[in-house]
Structure formats: C-alpha cells, structure tokens
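Troubleshooting log. The previous structure file for this entry was overwritten by mistake, so regenerating from the original sequence record. Sequence copied from the archived sheet and checked twice against the printout by T.R.
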Amino acid sequence: MTIEARKYHLIAEIMQVSDEKILKRFEEILTEYHQQMNDLRGLVKPIRSKKDINQLIQEQGFTGVDREKMNRLIDEIDIEESIEELLAML
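Regenerated output below.
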C-alpha cells in the first residue's frame, strides 16, 4: 500500500470514530508530531557554499591557544617516553 493510500485509509478509519477521547488522542499525537518537526527544522542549517575560516573562528568564539599555559602543562606532565613509545601504548 502506498503512503497516499495509507493516508486515505486512516482518514476513512478516523471518520468512523465517534469516541471523543480517541479523537482527542489523535489530535494530541498530531500536535506532538508537528512540534517535533518544527523543533528539528530549527536545528537544520543550510551548508555554506563558501568556507571562510575567519567567520568560523568568530562564530565559534575561538581565542587560540595560550602558549604559556600549554608550555606549563607540558612541563607538569613530564613525559619521558618518545612519541613512538606513547603510540605503541595505545
């Protein structure tokens, strides 16, 4: 059965419902569905045709690496093994 046929089938089934609670539940389900779709649409952003690194840096608030802090951390961890040895440990 195609999606269109399924929709018409559901409409026919709903037309036969006379219970107010059941109709209310259908409405709640559809409202929930539409809300979720709207929420998802807000998350989707178009892909830029041109990539601009400066614009990305500004948007993401990147401030760069604090060289003094990085050097201090390097001194504090005091790694004595070579890069090859460290990679082998992985």
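DSSP finds five helices and no strands in the chain. Archived copy saved in two places this time.
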